[in-house]
Amino acid sequence: MVTVTACKNPLDGFILGFKEPINKSTLRVQFSLPENGQLPQDLDFRIVGQDADKIVTNLNSKNFKISKEGLIVLAVEPLIIPSVSAPIKFTLVAESKAYTKIIKDFIFKNDGNYSLYFPFVKREAPGVINATQQQFDPKRSTSIQIASFNKQENISISVAENTLFYNSDNNSKTDLFDIVVNHYSSANSKSYLPAGGVATNPVDVNDKPLAEPFDFLQTAALFSLEMSTDKDEVIKKFSKPLKLTIEIAGNIINPQSNVNIASNDKIGVFSYDTDIGLWKEEGETYIKKNEQTGKFEIKFEIPHVTYWIAGWKRNICRTGPSFISKSLVKDLDIVYYAQLVNVVDNKLIRDYYISANDGATFNVSFIPKVAEKVKFRVFDYNNFYGGNLKTPIVESPEIPLCGVSKTTIDLSKITIPKYVELDVKLVCPQGQTLNEAGLPSEMKIQFSEPDKNVWRDIGVLTRANSKLKTYKMQVGQKFDLRASTDGGVSWPYVQKNYLIDKQNWSFRITMKDYCK
Asked: Per-residue pLDDT for 255 more than 90?
């Protein structure tokens, strides 16, 4: 047995146990921590916009503080039900001197739960990405210059006179603007494409659906442009396209000629809208060599704010084979390594981690057309304990890469580790009894290797079920354990270096906040 005592939440000054988290119309906002593992000390996080007054935390408070792990869960006030006819609109803003401005419009149109992820991007730091933030006054200037950190791939943006800048409500703005440009090194840009660089439902320049999805053989330029007013209104488009010139490295291989790029090579221009997840084929341009600088560059026009990519696309399979697991277990919460390989040369096309539970289905889709026939291999190697990566335990017959097919994979020989069953006992200090009616509806449980602070989910307990079964933890090992009653924003119940000495064990939590 282990007893864990609740401690006071350092973020907001009250014991979490007194409030029941809101579980409808929530927005889980996760910020990646900077390289030092800590939030910026000068971080200014705010919620603004039309319905900002209707937004609370998931504990129904106005105390908008981000946890030390970069998480905050927002919600619409419980008595308000968002709908298509009565949406709730607001804007998230996070600012720090060392990092570029983060700003995002969000709309609730129903009572669903959503998630957003934001990285903190350091300004003007050397590396793959050149992150720049500057102010722009269209009344005083008609150009925006972005000097690259390596002085090789500069960006120049020309703004026509009397250009209007429109926010998400299609209202024109003439304020002082904050401009954020994240520019990726052209040599590495393919590795940083948004949405994995896979255009699942793309449209053409006239917004008509393209017949086939695509990804990229090669890219020569990748950058994102974000604009907002000094009053925190997000700019989405312009009345006149901005004219852009971007320098690119000369050692990029043109996949159509299979040699380095040259003047007059044609290259495609694409955009990706992060708000709606839309890939768009924006047209083509030509690579030219600037006679004055000696550098290669491309020019094109950008009518809206988004990610912009210059590169060469390739069409891919929309639908591929499906694989159905046949095994001796149905409740595994670990996954096993698998490979999709070309039958001609056994070269790896893509690898995965798949469920080995009996009846689990794994679908392959949006795969490059690099082979006619493929095989699917599964290894006795899972994502928690490792295993054998040399020899697959099962290999499918040859099947077409593209098109609908279903194949059963027999995983009965896979190694199934022993499970651990967790029985959580909520206890009160001597002389008090548990107020069961006031217990939280859910309690999230995580574990980590001792002192590693790398937390993984075990599961979620409810009032009706106080037991969890997991294959992620091994008997005979020590772990740090923690529990949260507010959806994972804070973790006031912690046990360090606990030895799992048997397959069925109890996790006793002294929860004086729920006692009477």
From this structure: yes
